[in-house]
Amino acid sequence: MHTRTAGELRAENIGEEVTLTGWVWRRRDHGGLIFCDLRDRTGMTQCTFDPEHAQGSAFHTAETMRPEWPILVHGTVIARDAETVNPKLPTGEIEVLVDHIEVLGRSKTPPFQIEDGIETAEDTRLRYRYLDLRRPEMAEKLKLRSDFTFAIRSALHNRAFTEVETPALFKSTPEGARDFIVPSRLQPGSFYALPQSPQLLKQLLMVGGVERYYQVAKCFRDEDLRADRQPEFTQVDIEMSFVDQDDVMGALEDVLADAFAQVGVEMPTPLRRINYWDAMDTYGSDKPDTRFGMHLVDLTDVFKGSKFKVFSGAANTEGHVVKAINAKGAGTWPRAQIDKLAKVAESFGAKGLAWIAFREDGSMNSPIVKFFSDEEMAELKSRCDVEPGDLVMFAAGPRLASDEILGGMRSHMADALGIECEGHDFLWVVDFPLFHWDDDAKRYEAEHQPFTLPHVDQLDLLETNPLAMGSCTYDFVMDGFEAGGGGMRIHDAELQLKMLEFMGFTEERAKEQFGFLMEALTFGAPPMGGFALGLDRVCMLLAGSDSIRDVMAFPKTSSGSDLMSGAPSAVSLGQLKEVSLRLM
Amino acid sequence: MHTRTAGELRAENIGEEVTLTGWVWRRRDHGGLIFCDLRDRTGMTQCTFDPEHAQGSAFHTAETMRPEWPILVHGTVIARDAETVNPKLPTGEIEVLVDHIEVLGRSKTPPFQIEDGIETAEDTRLRYRYLDLRRPEMAEKLKLRSDFTFAIRSALHNRAFTEVETPALFKSTPEGARDFIVPSRLQPGSFYALPQSPQLLKQLLMVGGVERYYQVAKCFRDEDLRADRQPEFTQVDIEMSFVDQDDVMGALEDVLADAFAQVGVEMPTPLRRINYWDAMDTYGSDKPDTRFGMHLVDLTDVFKGSKFKVFSGAANTEGHVVKAINAKGAGTWPRAQIDKLAKVAESFGAKGLAWIAFREDGSMNSPIVKFFSDEEMAELKSRCDVEPGDLVMFAAGPRLASDEILGGMRSHMADALGIECEGHDFLWVVDFPLFHWDDDAKRYEAEHQPFTLPHVDQLDLLETNPLAMGSCTYDFVMDGFEAGGGGMRIHDAELQLKMLEFMGFTEERAKEQFGFLMEALTFGAPPMGGFALGLDRVCMLLAGSDSIRDVMAFPKTSSGSDLMSGAPSAVSLGQLKEVSLRLM
């Protein structure tokens, strides 16, 4: 319908006859003329209606038009007067003098302004998502997502990966999160499950000889939705066979660097690799943002003889530590503000928070410092590089728990202090422990997933110290977020069964849930490993957003509702009866 | 792990040291040597173990290896003896003299041969799909699908289409097929539905200003599965706004031609467009294969005065016809074989089948020819271009029903006669009727879908002759299959409501199901239209397969079962209770 887009006209187009389509954005009447900013997805062009120039009823039609009406205009590109040139706008040197207009539709007054940076409640934006998406900043985010998705597909396709679609209606194998279940009408009483990931299917594809697989896969988890989770999300799913871990990680770095480069982001390779325990030790996180310091400092040896029993107790207990971080600048905070940090620390599992504020005047403010010896204080200051204005915070207790508390505080303080991070931060965290202890279920659970290959030289630790067992795993960390995760897989049926049994599966239950996988592993499964990239999260980070909802066209609320369509909703009794179900 | 693939070695690689990985395909022991055909996804290389050459225990290891074991070999590329060169094999000039072998896994004896062209029952192949996919012909089909999918994505991306992911958990709007429903745990008693297509969502994206959208979208229909339907299937979903029908069809031709060209298939543009009624008239099908003739011939006027009452009755009834097709070659069939055609015709809605076999000796065999006058026979022979050996079949009755019977017979006879079709056949069938009459529901139903734009100059026919109303629609027909379908959409809320009401929706039900769409249309919806390409079917045709199951990695049976994983399966009472359901 149009010959040009609203974003592309420049001074060199002056004199050209054009047809444009788009929405009336703003309309101004001035000096007997009507000015209309016409918006399409590429940008905006000022269209001018002059009663002397407009043909037939065009000027009259222009008088009736309202914001958000879709229109078509035909006219001539002319130069703007010098004083009305808008240097901020790509099309700011020109306008279109309209001779003809066609109204393509009409619009009620939208419930919010179609503008960037609006303060409208998110629920309203979700209710009228189709209007929200008209806002240029939202349109740009959708486009960025499309571009990055295409970039990573291209990077994979060009490296001889085969895209394979795996089924969405699959078997319920509840572990980790809850499955969404789908009743079968043809087999009453039976259910499909929507996949939490294509993990099992991609391993079967490796058994099937695909060798290099990828898929941009919709995944489903019926979890209680935390602030930034969605019941359905998308991952770029990758798997390779006849490979070792370095093969996979090298291929992934190559693919990711290519994809990021295509959207203008440089990811230098080879990526840094940080061992899981080192990451916990230094950053208190298995997904550290390394663009700023505030490292965790180990002071265990310093406080072995301390009069402060909380510290000396920890320092003298096997597996416990005393550690600290130094939040530079927060030492000037008023006492009341510092006191609130205890609550924050509690949210990361602490029972309280020990701290020392080093005031600018050289004094100290702290509930605990009175217990410290001069030597302890001197060593603390030295190791933590203390200067006036610093706030040192402590954690004392079991190593991992202490690291997690300080890791949480490190992130919190970086936000609170407004530490600016330039560019993006990419790294691998590798060699996660194979298991963690689930205190609710009273059993060992897989840290990554039950199909992860252990460090095979540590298999004897299974009997003696399973928590010390490492795994062939690698998480891709971007800007302090877990942006992807991967690992090598068990490709031996016996080892797989042994691992499942160790995690509390009876042989019967293991076979019921994963029998088809274990059977497949008896038919010559090759060594294999892979990866899944959290597409929503990566796009969120690329877009500079703080919620994955911003990079999804139609996200759901934290109760799983689509406010626009009203889903989920009641279904008819007939629909339920067809699948042999009734409501409880 | 490997330095080369098993498909790439040629004479010029002779002397090279290589590491290969793959599966043991065939193993032969001959003259004190062991020969192993090593297969990976790129091809096959013969690996030779010579006890004089193999290092350490390599020869001994080779003695243990069995078919389908994954192995790694290291060795030197050498020339085959002149008499063992295999010109049929790309790697047939060379072999690899192995010095080292590593067994990467072991395999039980597979339940069927990993070979092309096996006769194994499909259920067995589906049960062990991971073994079935190792067969080169299946691997090639998966690769073709991946390549074509990437090709069409590229074609769209390069034309400034934006890929947008729409939700899989959406609102149940049952119409057309049944929805799969998904109970919500967070909102007990409420259900999501898996989308039958992203139709409503893509229209909302147009209201949202996306302008050019695409998605390779998983779609779900809970139908009784006919031979070649699947509960989930994939369509390339496309929508454009600020366009007229020629804009959309032109853009689609351009995209499709580009995508087909990337997989080596020429689709000449502009595509032929056949009006729906012309297609029915000439081919008795709205998805004709035009690579062969056997056109429907209208003989209504010929039999107006016929003594054969079945024909003259139809010929003198308004809206009824007498038509015929000429199946050349079938006139030599024995009577018993011809008689069986009546059953076939019945499957297309006929009550019986009138026919004339013109024997090679000039005689005629027919139950009805005795009623024909000489003039009728002469005119019949002339219009149907009758020669000895032809079989002419008739249909007499309502126009559309008669066309459909003969269209069905035309396809059947083309198969039965083994008519060879060269290359692919692409065309548009356009201007479908807006409605058909549903005799079960006793109401008009949308021929395409309820959101299709009618021919706006025919809106007055709604009152007088709705079945004569045309619609702005276009089906993409490939090799006699409906490979895609599209249309312009209603972008006016009032017209949309009017159409839904005409199709028997109360205003209340229309608003309950489609209120969010109609509300969106009140906020300045632009003119829009789009398309959906049936990816499974197109890939099936490109692969030369006769079932879409061949181009899906993990298809389901006609009862909706995944024979490999056992889905669908029972779920625990706990899982049901969490979603407040019980079995009936």
From TrEMBL, chains A, B:
One of its GO terms (molecular function) is aspartate-tRNA ligase activity. Residues 142-555 form the Aminoacyl-transfer RNA synthetases class-II family profile domain. It is an enzyme of class 6 (ligase). Keywords: Aminoacyl-tRNA synthetase, ATP-binding, Cytoplasm, Ligase, Nucleotide-binding, Protein biosynthesis. Coiled coil: none annotated. It catalyses: tRNA(Asx) + L-aspartate + ATP = L-aspartyl-tRNA(Asx) + AMP + diphosphate. Its main location: cytoplasm. Transmembrane segments: none annotated. Gene3D superfamilies: Bira Bifunctional Protein, Domain 2, GAD-like domain, Nucleic acid-binding proteins. The record marks 30 as: Important for tRNA non-discrimination. It is found in: Cytoplasm. Residues 199-202 are annotated as: Aspartate. L-aspartate binds at residues 175, 221, 448, 489. ATP binds at residues 221-223, 230, 482, 534-537. Its EC number is 6.1.1.23. GO terms for cellular component: cytoplasm. One of its GO terms (biological process) is aspartyl-tRNA aminoacylation. It comes from the Bacteria. Homodimer. Aspartyl-tRNA synthetase with relaxed tRNA specificity since it is able to aspartylate not only its cognate tRNA(Asp) but also tRNA(Asn). Reaction proceeds in two steps: L-aspartate is first activated by ATP to form Asp-AMP and then transferred to the acceptor end of tRNA(Asp/Asn). PANTHER family: ASPARTATE--TRNA LIGASE, MITOCHONDRIAL, ASPARTYL/LYSYL-TRNA SYNTHETASE. HAMAP family: Asp_tRNA_synth_type1. Belongs to the class-II aminoacyl-tRNA synthetase family. Type 1 subfamily. This is Aspartate--tRNA(Asp/Asn) ligase. It comes from Enorma shizhengliae. The gene is aspS.
